[in-house]
Amino acid sequence: MEAVITIELLEQRVKAILPERYQDCYEEVQPVSMGSAGLKYGPDGRVAWNEIWGSFCDLAMAGGPPHKGTILLPATPAEIESHPTEYTEVAAEICRGIQLVTTLKASPSQQPGWIEVTCANTAEAGWLTRAIVMENVSARTEGANLFLPAGPHYRIAKEVKNVITSTAKTFHHWEQHMWSAQQREIAALFEKQGELLQPPAHSNPTLPEAIRAATGLQPTAHAYPGWLGLECGDVHAAIWLMRALVASAILARREQTVLFVPSHEAVTEPLTALHAFAKSRGII
């Protein structure tokens, strides 16, 4: 993973990953929600996922409101084993919805708790993963495959809708608001940066104190597997650091004023540099 060297390079990369409509105004975007669209049903009695939205809130990547207030996690193997029928039904419905709102193929993954979506290339999978995680829906990427969460406790109008909406929203921006030349530029950037830093399976117990000592950011008591929460003090600071980290090949997201980063020691050095940039700009 390549380190961010200058504030100018960082700002170039932030603009590079944003849809064109946001590139010159992302600092002005406000995290205000448009409200939630209601469900519509087809003649077969099933949700017509492709007929729900006329428009979407601004991308969380651009500073808009995350689709969810807190992270939506995949089910654990134990939860799936306890309710196999419900899990199969939920996974099938998420796959059906994904295929209605995108041009991508979706199927239940062999890895419990995940749906596997086949993207056109690694750049698309990588960009969608970054954008969906910032909407507070779990996502990860392996090559050209995008993985989205599922669980037997997911409800149609809640968690199932969360997964499908966040995918529809981000896919719409990738396909409709980003030219082919920009997509190629993003592909080159991701290749240059190397592997995306994603949340590990287990949290690093020494990381909270290391980051507090390096940056002064106070760790929070949130207990999400693989994530470390850091209190930023205000929404604008959390958004700025989140976006800067993602532009630096590190998954990040926020819940109100709390920034979440992968609980991995590799995050310490780039986060410290980005925090110093934020202080120099008066953001923190």
* Arrangement of strands in the largest sheet: 1-2-4-3
Count of distinct structural domains: 2
- How many β-strand runs? 8
Low-confidence stretches: none
The coarse silhouette is: globular
Helix content: 40-55%
Terminal residue distance: 25 Å
Supply the CATH architecture of the largest domain: Alpha-Beta Complex
- The radius of gyration over CA amounts to 18 Å
For the record, what is the CATH homologous superfamily label of the largest domain? Aspartate Aminotransferase, domain 1
SSE pattern: HHHEEHEEHHHEEHEEH
CATH class of the largest domain: Alpha Beta
Topology at a glance:
Blueprint: H1 7-17, H2 77-82, H3 84-101, E1 105-108, E2 114-118, H4 122-134, E3 140-142, E4 145-149, H5 156-176, H6 180-193, H7 207-215, E5 218-219, E6 227-231, H8 235-246, E7 253-255, E8 258-262, H9 268-280
Antiparallel strand pairs: 1-2, 2-4, 3-4, 5-6, 6-8, 7-8
Question: Which labels suit this protein?
Answer:
Aspartate Aminotransferase, domain 1; 11% strand; four-stranded antiparallel sheet; 284 residues; single chain; globular; alpha+beta
Q: Any overview of this molecule?
A:
This protein is an alpha+beta fold. It has two domains: 1-19 and 194-284, Aspartate Aminotransferase, domain 1, CATH 3.90.1150; 34-177, Aspartate Aminotransferase, domain 1 (Alpha-Beta Complex), CATH 3.90.1150. 41% of the residues lie in helices and 11% in strands. The strands form two sheets. A four-stranded antiparallel beta sheet has the order 1-2-4-3, covered by helices on one side. Strands 5-6-8-7 form a four-stranded antiparallel beta sheet, with helices on one face. The chain starts with 6 loop residues before the first helix and ends with a helix. The mean pLDDT is 93.
